[in-house]
Write a structure and sequence with these properties.
Helix content is 39%, strand content 19%. The chain is built from 5 helices and 5 strands. α4 links the parallel β4 and β5. Mean pLDDT is 86; it is low at 1-17.
């Protein structure tokens, strides 16, 4: 089994006092890095994980995470829906957004997510989903 490489906190630009922290869970490196950079450009603090096991390790180390943004299909024993369920148990204050081409908004809601973004998506759509979630929460 490959050891977990827990990513370090990647700081976005903007006013640190007003920043919120987002954990992006995506097994596709290019998509994950694109989402991280896009959200950083909007002033968010962003962490990344390649699968649910790595995401849980990150969550155990960083208490300031506000939003979990996760894909549904990824390698490992837990998919994105199971990850959301676990996060709801362990970290009930964290709100979740499902980003997937293999799920629907209804499935995301049924799994406990507060938001949904279908793939493929425009960067602005992803940013708006995060913004709306934080504005409402």
């Amino acid at each position: 089994m490959e050891p977990l490489a827990v990513p370090s906190l990647i700081r976005g630009m903007g006013d640190p006092a007003g920043q919120r922290t987002i954990l992006v869970v995506e097994d596709e490196l290019f998509i994950r890095m694109s989402a991280i950079v896009t959200l950083q450009d909007e002033g968010y603090l962003v962490l990344g994980a390649r699968d649910s096991a790595e995401a849980l390790a990150v969550l155990s180390r960083y208490s300031e995470i506000d939003v979990l943004m996760t894909d549904v299909r990824m390698p490992g024993r837990m998919d994105g829906f199971a990850l959301i369920a676990q996060v709801q148990l362990d970290h009930p204050a964290i709100r979740s957004i499902v980003v997937s081409s293999n799920a629907t908004a209804e499935q995301a809601r049924n799994a406990g997510a507060s938001g949904f973004v279908g793939k493929p998506y425009f960067a602005r759509t992803m940013v708006q989903a995060v913004h709306d979630l934080l504005l409402l929460g």
